[in-house]
Write a structure and sequence with these properties.
- This protein is about 25% helix and about 25% strand.
- The protein has 10 helices and 13 strands.
- Strand 10, helix 8 and strand 11 form a beta-alpha-beta unit.
- It is globular.
Length: about 325
């Protein structure tokens, strides 16, 4: 439970009554939940419309415990995300969560729950950014700014799967191996001037770019993109997402397109989730490392999330 915006000490493990699903909602026994930058923004007081105290968590995976009046069945494996989870109603940092049936995605997998819990929101964000926003095609070049984040790693794996050549950034050369492991062809050190490095490799610039750091690096990312190329603004690892005094003609390079992506559960087709779970199980693709935390260690998990301690996805495991 998050008592209010502020330090990590505002997060605590408390006992609350098991929630009951109202009409049109489903109760899920949570087996694993991913930690996301969105929840850090909520804790830091940067998210709007949050009523406290609140159980955080914009995603969860588990099994249906009470299907209510939906067509789901007890014990069915499901994922859920977004739709107000962890902000306007209690989210996934719990043993049970109650969500609208419309945002529940079924799947079948024998993967361990920590591996499953790392996938849904990360995959939804990466898939939507590349397919919906950037319309990435085989043979194109993609720059990922913020490449060792969980979404950055997933986007690299998906882009390679789509047949693209991937360039991806990190502030630490020691993390190059993590980038190449998910299919990055050109790992780059982010020294604040990535555009010069990109154009040394591709003089005309990349076809597409995925901005995950935020507005501080967005101008340089735009400068790395070719005429008629597209930049998608998806992430805010810097916790900065506003462009002050935006003057489009002065801000945007001529002919470079800027779009954005912010998706919901409906933007992740069940077939896409199932396909990638199956491919992960078969060893054909990886979305990056997974780091797990018991519920009692939720403060440590949030500290690691805020500091960027680990490469890959952080996953919480509810109390047994």
């Amino acid at each position: 439970m998050l008592s209010g915006p502020g330090p990590v000490s505002n997060l605590s493990v408390v006992e609350v009554p098991t929630p009951s699903p109202p009409p049109g909602w489903v109760r899920i026994r949570v087996r694993a939940f991913g930690l996301n930058r969105s929840e850090l923004h909520t804790r830091l007081g940067l998210a709007e419309g949050v009523v406290f105290p609140r159980v955080p968590g914009i995603e969860a995976t588990g099994v249906v415990d009470d299907p209510g009046d939906s067509s789901f069945t007890v014990g069915q494996q499901v994922a859920t995300m977004m739709g107000g989870m962890g902000r306007t109603f209690d989210g996934g940092y719990a043993e049970y969560t109650v969500v609208p049936a419309a945002q529940v995605i079924p799947f079948v997998s024998e993967l361990p729950w920590p591996a499953i819990g790392a996938v849904p929101e990360t995959l939804q964000t990466a898939y939507g950014s590349l397919v919906t926003a950037l319309d990435l095609r085989p043979g194109q070049t993609l720059l990922i700014r913020g490449g060792t984040s969980s979404v950055g790693l997933a986007a690299a794996a998906l882009a390679r799967d789509l047949g693209a050549t991937v360039l991806s950034t990190t502030r630490s050369p020691g993390r190059f191996a993590a980038l190449t492991a998910v299919g990055v062809t050109h790992p780059l050190v982010d020294d604040g001037s990535v555009a010069a490095q990109v154009r040394a490799l591709f003089p005309d610039g990349v076809d597409a770019a995925l901005e995950l750091v935020g507005t501080p690096t967005l101008p340089d990312t735009l400068a790395a993109t070719r005429v008629r190329g597209t930049v998608c603004f998806t992430g805010m690892l810097s916790n900065e997402w506003l462009v002050r005094d935006f003057y489009p003609i002065g801000y945007l390079p001529t002919g470079v397109r800027l779009t954005a992506y912010g998706g919901e559960a409906s933007d992740l087709p069940p077939a896409v989730l199932q396909r990638f779970l199956d491919r992960i199980a078969a060893g054909e693709v990886t979305l990056g490392p997974v780091h797990t935390y018991a519920m009692d260690d939720i403060r440590t998990a949030h500290t690691d999330l805020e500091r960027g301690t680990h490469v890959g996805k952080l996953v919480g495991l509810p109390l047994p």
